[in-house]
Write a structure and sequence with these properties.
The protein is mainly α and about 325 residues long. Helix content is about 35%, strand content about 10%. It is elongated and about 75 Å long.
Length: about 325
């Protein structure tokens, strides 16, 4: 019998003995990616969907937790056993302290209060792809089915946060900036409120502070089923983008929000003209730099039709379901 573990991400992480999905190793247990070393590839769907996920096993998660396979399966201790943690390379086994070494770990955790034990677990998880110390998966499994729902939600929320919310949160004493931000915020929030979404979404800050604008499952489905809402939102943000860019007040993008070719890369520090003087020589002048074309953040809403190739019409073949004869072919 082969067991397949299927669930949403928070439940799978709980069953597998991992910290919550807010831990650093967001990809675990499906992959070995972590937030610190794999940005923004972890969030931009650049990984191969066929080969990237599923790089784990029940035995591997047990060893990350410093638990021998026989213990996780409820079996008797064999005469000789040994394993090495794939993350920290720590060795356990008959010739490495035996079961006494594991009992010492359990006794150390049991003697801690809740606060210190939580800190100990998190410290271990930070170096073991979110796997908690001495917390093996609750169920043995052969395969884990990846549920991309939460990753997609993260993409949508990162988009809305970078493109809308953070721009409306810009602080400035400039009267024009304040007026433009307030107008855009009122128009956009009213549009989202009138959409009657399953969750109330509000961007920017008001007299009660900043509000939650993260989409949950039902809200994500409702929003992504209404592309006109997204298009209107970006359109209404147009004056904000232009004004903040002209006044150099654009918010700094996080690693997840950076897309190739969108944000200009800062030129490396020029050290040519600051070289130390050589014997009998002068400081060399930096060569003249070519002025780069300024890159701006733009969103193509498909309104420009100039030089746009018109796709051929889609032909629909209608077939009689009883005799399978072709009825007609018409463009759609």
């Amino acid at each position: 019998m082969e067991l397949v573990l299927v669930a949403d991400k928070p439940f799978i992480r709980h069953v597998c003995g991992l910290l919550s999905h807010n831990a650093d190793a967001f990809g675990a247990p499906f992959c070995n990616c972590c937030d610190l070393t794999d940005r923004p590839a972890l969030y931009d769907f650049s990984q191969c969907k066929r080969t990237h996920y599923g790089r784990t096993s029940f035995e591997d998660l047990c060893h990350r937790a410093h638990v021998p396979l026989w213990e996780a399966l409820g079996q008797k201790e064999p005469e000789f056993w040994e394993f090495r943690c794939p993350c920290c390379a720590a060795r356990f086994g008959t010739d490495h302290g035996g079961i006494a070494a594991l009992d010492d770990l359990d006794a150390e955790l049991a003697a801690m209060d809740e606060r210190h034990m939580t800190a100990k677990m998190k410290k271990h998880a930070d170096g073991h792809l979110a796997q908690q110390l001495r917390r093996h998966p609750l169920l043995p499994f052969h395969y884990v089915v990846h549920d991309p729902m939460h990753a997609v939600h993260n993409e949508a929320n990162a988009l809305l946060d970078e493109a809308v919310h953070k721009h409306l949160m810009v602080e400035s004493n400039d009267a024009e900036v304040k007026k433009t931000l307030e107008h855009a915020q009122v128009v956009i929030n009213k549009d989202w409120k009138d959409a009657n979404l399953p969750k109330f979404i509000q961007f920017g800050r008001d007299n009660q502070g900043a509000h939650s604008h993260a989409l949950n499952g039902p809200c994500f489905e409702a929003v992504w089923g209404r592309p006109d809402l997204i298009i209107r939102t970006i359109t209404n943000m147009g004056p904000v983008y232009a004004l903040l860019e002209s006044k150099k007040l654009l918010p700094k993008l996080t690693a997840e929000g950076v897309a190739a070719g969108v944000v200009p890369v800062a030129a490396p520090d020029d050290i040519t003209g600051t070289k130390k003087r050589q014997a009998g020589g002068k400081a060399q002048k930096a060569p003249a730099k070519k002025k780069r074309a300024q890159k701006v953040r733009r969103v193509d809403l498909g309104t420009d039709t100039e030089d746009e190739e018109v796709p051929p019409p889609l032909l629909v073949l209608r077939i009689c379901t009883r005799c399978t004869r072709n009825i007609n072919i018409e463009p759609r």
